[in-house]
């Protein structure tokens, strides 16, 4: 187990270093002179030279990269166009996105898991077809369109929920009102993925020998499904949820844009639209790091759930 | 030499033709998959013949008929500039299909040779390719596409490139995995004994045997790219207005949600219908091509 952990963590670190280089080079590949953008569009040569000096743009790339990473390791991601510290902006925006992500995963678990179990247990019956069809539609409906539709129905027509904005968790009720639609939108696609995965791994489990044994020794169908098949199906579902993290991060970006939530996702799009180089660099680095770390976590959890994987 | 082995009298059946006929029969027995194929073909026809099918010029404005409801003249109504929605959706299909098919082809063109080389030769080249794939996979799909769109600039072509490159890692993994499995098959040493070189083995013996897997992955990637294009255009990083695309139409519609909610409905329906058709078709293909999942 220890060896597996060390190997896996080492690989994640290598990937992260390479990803940081790619982010660094990618930002430098964006057309346009960063000095002009950083110097608030001032094209005076003296100002540009000062800006270049200040942001080390007059130094060779490896020096710039080393400097950036060294500061990043100390929690300093530089300042953006408005002279605000990037790290601080990210830290204030992240909890909002985390809340959205967690709520949507809650929605997905509450909807997707039971639906998948029902579809598997009633395989080939109308309820299976209904659930499977809804999931297929759920997979094909893009978040941003579902978001627009919900705004039309629940905000514009019915006036039940606010169309956009975010209220801090300090006001739980208002926070819930603002987060309900975004969480449902983001959770819908996840539920569909989860349901399909749950259905197929439940079908595998239900056909396994230990389920036949459980039935043969006279356990109730409820007990067979819940205690034997369901628990074993959760192993594959965990991995699939891990693989969905990327989709979750992408979904957060879109959902926050539609509902005007000033979270991490919205920050990413704003950074790209404003060509704010330090901000883009910081945001993409943090999302890659979060993604790599989360995948590492999934691998570790998976190896705890399924000891066979550690050997390979 | 094969003439000797052929039993006389029995009709000579090409095994490949027989397999094709079997697959066609299995496909036709799945109404959902057939329906998916029909809708996909309808969208492709719409994309190719957009100039002839669209009743109006998609960019033609008519300020006497802004926000018109559906009438015989404008079936799906008009937008804030009086542009015909139906025509814009038909032209939007062109952008969507173009991005869907071209980005998938691009991803396959880059990824399949790399994946096959990695899986066939293994060793250091496999390690290098696997690590690069890991690094690309360390960026969430949309973040990678948004980043690439930012580097390349916002346009339909660049959206295609960004989405194509973002789909490369998944294809590399699949091609590599398939090659690893296929190179252990008995017909590979047989081909080596026959004097085939590596290129012949990779392209004539391994590649044809993974086409069904690649095909299924493509039917997943194409709808992903169609939705991806809509998202990029919606965020202002893809097709630029006034050019018609389902994503830019939704972006425009967002400002008029209370005034003309219907503007947000039809382009979205088009996206869902296209993505759904590809997904259903893909599910059907997976079922008929993979004997393990047949019921």
What does this protein look like?
- The complex is a heterodimer of chains A (312) and B (295).
- By secondary structure, chain A is mostly helical.
- Chain A contains 13 helices and no strands.
- Chain A has helices at residues 2-29, 34-38, 45-54, 61-73, 86-121, 126-140, 143-157, 172-206, 209-216, 221-243, 245-258, 264-273, 277-305.
- The longest helix of chain A is centred in the N-terminal third of the chain and has 36 residues, at 86-121.
- Chain A is globular and about 85 Å long.
- The model of chain A has no long low-confidence stretch (mean pLDDT 82).
- The longest helix of chain B is centred in the middle third of the chain and has 37 residues, at 85-121.
- Chain B is globular.
- Chain B has helices spanning 2-5, 15-28, 31-48, 50-53, 85-121, 123-137, 141-152, 156-166, 168-182, 187-193, 198-206, 211-234, 246-254, 262-289.
- Chain B is 70% helix and 0% strand.
- In chain B, helix 7 (141-152) runs antiparallel to helix 8 (156-166) and helix 12 (211-234) packs antiparallel against helix 14 (262-289).
- Chain B is an all-alpha fold.
- Chain A binds chain B through residues 11, 14-16, 18-19, 22-23, 26, 29-31, 136-137, 139-142, 144-145, 148-149, 151-152, 156-157, 163, 245-247, 249-250, 253-254, 257-258, 268-269, 272-273, 275, 280, 284, 287-288, 291-292, 295, and chain B through 131, 134-135, 137-143, 146-151, 153, 223, 227, 230-231, 234-237, 250, 253-254, 257-258, 261, 264-265, 268, 271-272, 275-276, 279-280, 283.
Q: Over all CA atoms, what is the radius of gyration of chain B?
A: 23 Å
How widely separated are the two ends of chain B?
40 Å
The Rg value of chain A, from CA coordinates, equals: 24 Å
Secondary-structure element sequence of chain A? HHHHHHHHHHHHH
Biggest sheet architecture of chain B: none
**Multimerization status:** heterodimer
Contiguous uncertain segments of 5+ residues of chain A: none
Q: What structural class do the secondary elements of chain A suggest?
A: mainly alpha
